[in-house]
Design goal:
Two copies of one chain form a homodimer.
Chain A (H helix, E strand, L loop, with lengths): L4 H14 L8 E2 L1 H8 L3 H14 L2 E4 L3 E4 L4 H25 L3 H16 L8 H15 L3 H18 L6 H19 L3 H32 L9
Antiparallel strand pairs in A: 1-3, 2-3
Chain A binds a DNA duplex (30 and 30 nucleotides) through helix 3.
Chain lengths: 228, 228
DNA sequence: TACGCCAGGATTGTATACAATTGCTAGCGT
DNA sequence: ACGCTAGCAATTGTATACAATCCTGGCGTA
């Protein structure tokens, strides 16, 4: 299923962390994960290193690995950086114009979501992420795309708490369509307004949900494999 | 000298790549580096993974590692992202104010550099990098700091080609002092102007040097340890 | 009782052995 | 002469063994 075990462990471990199977503060040990995933320490180590890079796991040299704790300020800061970068995406796209085909496709998608509304909830988070990513890619600035991807990966796990009800999804559709319309006219001012509203709403939503998550993770298990 | 061999190899290998001992396009093998640094493959692998993350080395699965080739557009794009992020640093610092002590220290440093001018050339690149990093840290936004650090690490190796003569260093001093003065007065407009000039000059300088580097690396050796 | 020291265990850091994959090459057949 | 295939060499991917380090707990002493 995977090309190599490192990537496989990385994927599966990320998912478990994002699903809070391993809650923030949980201690991970290399050997424990070996048993968990039935592989040796080499791929586990590489996966852990990647997760440390991505910021999902914290590492204390020669001691242990710990699932990164949720921190409202960090999330807020990350969203702030994201907003700054995506505003630049708007600026670039309005300046240089966007391929019609891309705009058409995205617009069709979000019109579709809006019109048969209850059913889009399942992929809402993924769709939203893709929307922003594709616009970033349309700038042609890879450094920008990758930087945004890095930030996104740090807030990915809280994005799940953004679009949780139909009203919020409807609002998202409106914002996205407004952004697309503005981009089509190369109207930077409205693009910026719509984008800022879109992201700030998302951040507020997430932040609201964060306290629940934090308390839930405190209630859940805390210790790692052994050594209570 | 180092806490662990991985970090040590990482540092030393980075330096060799930056110094063009291993030029862009050069093929790196794990075993070759083992012999080179007298360590086993484990730390070498970890160092290579870090370098891949940092973008200095490209990896072809199950085949080889190659020193990343220089690409003018990528550098330009990275500088663009850096400018955007550092402009946000200015915005935040002007809004929330900066600790006097930090401004005093930085100002003293750059006044010192300017006044006994020829001698600062050696650490010019490092000093410049620290200047921008410390201002970023002063925002208190870790996501911003780390994102900037990520971008910086991608352009680190070309920054060496920025401040290469005294006139350029003098110019840098002027810009930095101007930035500090503006920050002291929370004067966003002038801070932005000085910063933009500072970074755009740097980018232009680097880009100018890039063609030389590229041609020099094409002239130099290309193959790795063996297998011509 | 409080503090410091030492031993033991747990865990990461490093080295090395083995497996799997890739790319080249020589040799065969057509 | 060309293309295909089997086998070889080189290299990375994975597993495991060994070394170094840090934490914990218990003991002794002031």
């Amino acid at each position: 299923m995977a090309e190599n075990l490192s990537a496989d462990v990385y994927e599966r471990l990320s998912e478990r962390i994002l699903k809070l199977d391993y809650p923030p503060g949980y201690r991970l040990t290399e050997e424990g994960l070996c048993a968990e995933f039935q592989v040796s320490r080499s791929p586990v180590r590489e996966a852990l290193n990647m997760l440390v890079q991505r910021g999902l796991v914290r590492k204390n040299p020669r001691q242990n690995y710990v699932v990164r704790e949720l921190d409202v300020k960090e999330i807020r800061d990350a969203y702030h950086v994201r907003l700054v970068l995506e505003l630049e995406v708007m600026t670039l796209l309005c300046r240089q114009g966007v391929d019609q085909a891309i705009l058409d496709r995205l617009e069709a998608h979000w019109l579709g979501v809006r019109d048969r509304l209850p059913e889009g909830m399942a992929h809402a988070a993924d769709d939203d992420e893709r929307f922003h990513r594709e616009l970033a890619e349309a700038t042609g600035n890879q450094a920008l795309t990758r930087t945004l991807a890095a930030i996104d990966s740090q807030i990915h796990f809280v994005r799940l708490y953004d679009i949780t009800n139909i009203e919020r999804l409807r609002r998202t559709c409106t914002d996205h369509l407004e952004i697309l319309t503005a981009l089509r006219r190369q109207d930077l001012k409205n693009a910026v307004v719509a984008l800022a509203r879109n992201i700030e709403w998302a951040e507020a939503n997430v932040e609201g949900a964060l306290s629940d998550v934090a308390s839930r993770s405190r209630a859940g298990g805390r210790e790692g494999t052994s050594r209570g």
